[in-house]
Recover the amino acids of this structure.
């Protein structure tokens, strides 16, 4: 018997997002396990505690994934002969209420009950799906193991449409040892959410915005002395800053050499890449001239903003 938190048949997208942030869903697991290339644990913590605006690219991916889900499910049924039932609900683990699941479907057989998961992927990810070992990308493996933990099911079929024209279907067995690890990591993460205590800070824009919101302005001329144990942090910053400058110069050198090859053409192709060097016309207000020739108008429309500049410099010897 599946444990239901709420039916999704009639709730709005906004309410669905609110329920989703009341726990950990399958797509969150790869972040908590530290293998997600696009989102950090700190960013996920901000989503669960403060909320976030969905990225436009994410909306587009989610839209097509949802739109093509019935097509992928129908093709899976056609190829396997198995019957897939849908679950228009957010499911909840009976013992760990922070563990939630939005599964695409389930399959009941005499040999066991299984998750069904439909995926879409770019043609650039073909190598991740087209393999002799029937390997599923690890992030999706973690996702369906999470779903199996929530539902108690014994396995999962993952069907994926790659590039809009190549269909793959792989089976994943339940791994109780892996599930135990997932539950342990999710418990630790959810403790951060429930206590409103941030996990370790990272270099994401989300972390930067969060810190800036906590400390939008400095106290005038105030200064503290940090413990010497933090000197390694300062040295790391200086080291990364110098490397950033070095690699920026190398990047600019490569760009300049490519520009010389492109010349007055707008673009060039090489291997599976397209290089563009387009004409961009921008209009900018000449504020210096405006302040000189029309000072009253300049002052009338002048907006003042404030931000904090972060620097590390050698102290002058006393």
């Amino acid at each position: 018997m599946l444990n239901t938190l709420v039916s999704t048949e009639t709730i709005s997208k906004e309410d669905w997002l609110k329920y989703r942030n009341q726990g950990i869903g399958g797509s969150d697991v790869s972040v908590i396990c530290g293998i997600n290339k696009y989102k950090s644990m700190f960013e996920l913590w901000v989503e669960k505690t403060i909320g976030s605006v969905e990225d436009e690219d994410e909306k587009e991916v989610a839209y097509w994934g949802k739109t093509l889900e019935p097509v992928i499910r129908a093709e899976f049924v056609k190829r396997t002969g198995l019957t897939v039932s849908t679950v228009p609900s957010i499911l909840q683990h009976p013992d760990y209420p922070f563990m939630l699941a939005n599964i695409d479907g389930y399959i009941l057989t005499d040999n066991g009950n299984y998750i069904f998961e439909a995926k879409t992927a770019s043609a650039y990810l073909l190598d991740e799906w087209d393999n002799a070992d029937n390997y599923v990308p690890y992030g999706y493996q973690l996702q369906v193991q999470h779903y199996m933990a929530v539902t108690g099911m014994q396995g999962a079929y993952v069907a994926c449409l790659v590039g809009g024209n190549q269909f793959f279907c792989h089976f994943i067995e339940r791994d109780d040892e892996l599930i135990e690890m997932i539950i342990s990591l999710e418990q630790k993460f959810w403790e951060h959410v429930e206590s409103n205590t941030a996990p370790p800070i990272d270099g994401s824009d989300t972390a930067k915005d969060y810190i800036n919101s906590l400390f939008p302005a400095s106290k005038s001329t105030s200064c503290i002395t940090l413990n010497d144990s933090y000197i390694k942090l300062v040295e790391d910053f200086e080291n990364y800053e110098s490397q950033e400058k070095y690699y920026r110069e190398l990047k600019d050198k490569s760009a300049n050499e490519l520009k010389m090859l492109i010349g007055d053409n707008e673009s060039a192709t090489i291997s599976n890449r397209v290089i563009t060097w387009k004409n961009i016309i921008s209009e900018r207000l000449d504020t210096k001239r405006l302040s000189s020739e029309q000072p009253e108008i300049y002052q009338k429309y002048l907006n003042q903003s404030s931000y904090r500049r972060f620097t590390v410099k050698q102290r002058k010897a006393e």
About this structure: The beta strands are 4-7, 89-92, 100-101, 105-109, 112-121, 155-162, 166-173, 267-270, 273-276. Residues 141 and 172 are 7 Å apart (CA to CA). The mean pLDDT is 89.
